[in-house]
Amino acid sequence: MNRYRIYRLAGKAGKVLRPLGKVLGKNLIWSLLLLFFAYTALVKPGFLTPDRILGLLSGTVLMLPVTLAMEACLRHRMVDFSMSRVAGAACLMTAAMLQAPVPARFLPGQPLSAVIVFLLALLSGLAAGTVSGNLITLGKMPASLVTFAMAQAVSGLRAAASGSSTVAGLQDTGLVQLLRWPLLTAGKATLQGWVPFSMLLGAGVWLLCRVLTGGGRTRQRELGVGQLMGLFMVTGAAAAVTGFLECIRYDMAAGSMCQGLELKAILAVLLGGAALKDGRAHPWRTAAGTLLVQGINAASGEFFSSRILLLIEGLLLLVLCIREIPSNPSGQAAPSPRRRVRSRRTGSEDDG
User: Fold this and answer.
1) Geometric angle at alpha carbon 58, from 177 and 275, rounded to 5°
2) What are the tens digits of pLDDT across the range 205-239?
3) pLDDT at res. 21
């Protein structure tokens, strides 16, 4: 086989593989999901039981509002590091105010209505987002610095109010009973009423973020002061309501709940597609990335330890951040190759 035939075969192979590479690049998350579930099914067939699958879907739906809000922030080169602390504080507040009876350090007498507690949790998230948004927009401060300071402040308030104790035993009346209504049972897992509620919340968060950011196509420099403030109010409210639903789901609240929520949301967004490159929203890929993150967390008890889980998540974040580096970081166009032009007069070749 001569060199000419080798070049022809290589060219034909390139024409076939180039579209395949583009398809896999756009649908990387679906390939990763298929690979993950295939690996777990082959290595440990008893891992993907019906109750485990139902638990993965429930955890994905619970985390989806926070993930969609984080996607809107990342598309505009911002991040909210206060999500986990706001969600944890709302979770503890919900458990403390829905106990029977309410502890004396909060309110004496009978437990509060779950609707009032939900509104208080929502207001706490809106307040945290409003303060962060004002400091970012009016104070011209970096979003990462402001939200990190907000996370520390919320953590201090939470520790001063409840300490490190675990609060358990919620009243099962009213809105709590509605959110715990069994819709589907698979083995030991039950699909409760808070799952469709969280789905509606996720759809509302996506719609609000789309309206605030101009349909998902505007950049950070094009967002006004009101839009940026509204965006951080949405992220704070989504985190607080997620903490409220987390307490309803587990019937308890502890200091370690909702820990690392924003990092898992960032990982899910980056796994879901190139949101940082084109500035567009990919809600279905983000949902698939959230499912993959939930699957990796569920596999930590079966295939590896929690320390290895932190290592895997950190390495995935680094690899996905490296993938966002453009091929031409300077932003300048590559110089065009020079042509050699034969002069008519002299017959010599010059660079053209």
Assistant:
1) 130
2) 999 988 888 765 545 456 788 888 899 999 999 99
3) 47
Query: Are the beta carbons of 194 and 179 closer than 8 angstroms?
Result: yes
Q: Are the C-beta atoms of 312 and 107 separated by less than 8 Å?
A: no
Q: Under DSSP, is residue 12 helix (H, G, I), strand (E, B) or coil? A: helix
Q: Which tokens sit at 188?
A: 């030991």
pLDDT digits (tens, 9 = 90+) for 12-39: 555 554 555 455 556 678 888 888 888 8
pLDDT (tens digit per residue) in 171-186: 776 788 888 888 877 7
Parse the chain into domains and list their residue ranges. 24-321
| CA–CA separation, 334 and 269 (whole Å) | 31
- Are the CB atoms for 243 and 90 separated by under 8 Å? yes
Which three-class secondary structure state does DSSP give residue 350? Answer: strand
**Helix and strand totals (H; E) in the chain:** 13, 6
Interval 70-84 mean pLDDT: 88
Q: What is the CATH number of domain 24-321?
A: 1.10.3470
Q: With helix as H, strand as E and coil as C, how does 46-82 read?
A: CCCCHHHHHHHHHHHHHHHHHHHHHHHHHCCCCCCCC
Q: If pLDDT is split at 50, 70 and 90, which confidence band does 326 have?
A: low
Question: What is the percentage of the chain residues whose pLDDT exceeds 70?
Answer: 73
Q: How many residues does the chain have?
A: 352
CB atoms within 10 A of CB 283: 19
Q: What CA–CA distance (Å, rounded) separates 204 from 283?
A: 12
* Residue carrying the six token digits 């290595």: 43
- The closest alpha carbon to 83, from 99, 98, 72, 97, belongs to 72
Q: How far apart are CA 56 and CA 297, in angstroms?
A: 10
The owner of tokens 């000419």 is 4
The rounded distance, in Å, linking the Cα atoms of 158 and 176 is 23
Whole-prediction pTM: 0.80
Tokens of 175: 């809105």
Q: Any idea of the CA torsion for 169, 202, 284, 72, to the nearest 10 degrees?
A: -120
pLDDT mean across residues, the chain: 78
Residues 6+ apart with CB under 8 A from 13: none
User: Cα 304 to the chain's mean position, in Å?
Assistant: 23
